[in-house]
Amino acid sequence: ERQGKRRHVTADSSDRKLELAFPSTSQTSQSKPVPFQQPVSLITFSYTPSRKLEFNNSALRYYVNPPRNANLRHGYERWIKRPEEKGRIDGLLRATSKLRNDMNAGASKGVDWIRSIGVVSWRGVMTKILTAPYEDRDSWEMNVMAIDGTMYFEEHLSDAKLVEKEDMAPHHRLQSYYGYSFESWCGSSKPEMPENLEGQPPGWGGDVDTNVQWCSVVKTKLGDTRMVIGGEVDCVRNAFTGQTSDFVELKTSIAIRGPQDEARFEKKLLKFYFQSFLLGVPEIIVGFRTPSGQLNTIQLFKTAQIPRMVRGKPNAWDPTTCFAWGQQFFAFLKSVIHPSAEPIAEQQGNVTSALRPQVWRVKFEPRVGVSVSLLGDAGVSEIQAGEDRVGFLPRWYWDEVQT
Ligand code: 0WD
Ligand code: CA
Fold this sequence. Notes:
Layout: H1 2-5, E1 18-21, E2 40-47, E3 53-54, E4 62-63, H2 90-105, E5 119-122, H3 123-131, E6 140-147, E7 150-155, H4 159-166, H5 170-186, E8 187-188, E9 213-222, E10 225-232, E11 235-236, E12 247-254, H6 259-279, E13 283-289, E14 295-302, H7 306-310, H8 319-337, E15 341-343, E16 355-357, E17 360-365, E18 369-374, H9 377-384, E19 389-390, E20 393-394, H10 395-402
Parallel strand pairs: 5-7, 5-10, 12-13
Antiparallel strand pairs: 1-18, 2-3, 2-9, 4-8, 6-7, 6-17, 9-10, 11-12, 13-14, 15-16, 17-18, 19-20
Helix pairs in contact: 3-6
Bound molecules: ligand 0WD and calcium ion (CA).
C-alpha cells in the first residue's frame, strides 16, 4: 500500500499528540480509488433575517438569469452583514436531532440512527479537509468530539481570528459583497423573475442580508465512513422536489484575461468542485466580473465534469487524491480519538454519570500535514465561551444523545 507508507504516525503517550503527514499530490495513480456515495437530501431548513432557524423553505430562492451588465456593487450600502461567529454546528445538530426523533417515532424505532454515522460536519469544514492535499497557503484548525463513534467537527476560530475576519479591508469586503450581490441578481423568491422592486433596477432580487440562508442536510459515505453534512444552497432550478439534483451553486470570479488568470481559475475550481460535490449540487453558475464589479458573462459548469476540465493542465488536481487523503484522515482520527469521554476521577460517589468530554484540536499546515492533540481544561473553557456547552456541543444535544 503506497499511501500507507507515506503515513508517519508518531505517538507520544504523555501528551497524546499525533501527526499525519501529507500524501504526495504528484502521485496520481492510487492503488484503489476510495468511493464516495452520491449525497441524498434528508432535510432542509431556513435561517430568517433574525437568524432564527425554521424547518421550512422560507429562504429558498429560484434561479433566474441575471440582467446583462448587472452592477454587483448595487445595494452595497444597505448590506445587512451577519457578524462573524465561531463555527458552531448548533443548526446542523438541530436538524440531526429532528431527523433522529422523527425516525425514533417511526417504523425503525429502537435503531439509533446517529450511531451509524461516523462524521457530522458543515460542508465548509469537509471542503477544507478534502482539499488539504492541494492547499499551499492557508492553515486551519478544527475542534473534534466523538460520542459513540460519531465524530463532530467545528472549525476552530480563536477570538483573535474572529476579530481579524470581522476587520476585513474595505476592498476585500466589497469583493465579498460582489458574491452576495450576484446571488441577489440570480435569485427570486418565486419561480419566475422577481417583480420590480420600487426604486430598484429590474432584476434585483432584494437587498442582501447574509443572516438569511437556505440549508440542506445530506447523508453520504466516503469509503466506509457514513457522513451527515449540512451546507448553504444558493438556489434551485425551476422547482424544489426535495432532491439535490435541483440545487444550484452561484459563484463570482474575475473575468479571465490570460493564461495566468486561467490557471488561477482552474485552481479555484478545486474548491468549487468539492464544495458543490459534497452536497450533491450538480450545477455551478459562475458570474465573471470586471475588477470594479460589473457582470460580464455567466458560465454554467456541470460539477461532475469539472475534474476532466482540469486534467493535464498546469494547475491540475485530482479528486481521487483528495478522497484517498480523506479516508486516511478519518481513519487516523478515529484511531486517535476514542473514547470521547472518560469518567472523572472518583469523587462525590457519582462516577458513572460524570463524564469529562474530550475535545481534540486538529491543526493543518500546508505541505506538512495535520497534527492532533487533546485539549486541556483551559482550551476547553476557551471554546465554550461561557455558553451552556459540553465541549463545543450545546448541552441540550449532549444530554439528548447520552440517553
Ligand atoms: O464552520 C464553518 N465553516 C462555519 C459555518 C463558520 C461560520 C458559519 N458557518 C455556517 C454558515 O454560515 C452556514 O450557516 O454554517 C452553515 C453552512 O455553511 P457551509 O455551507 O458549510 O459554508 P461554506 O461552504 O463555507 O460556504 C457556503 C456559503 C458561502 O458561499 P460561497 O459561494 O462564498 O462559498 O455560505 C456563506 C457564503 O455565501 N457563508 C457565509 N456568509 C456569511 N458569513 C459565511 C460567513 N461567515 N461563511 C459562509
Ligand atoms: Ca455561493
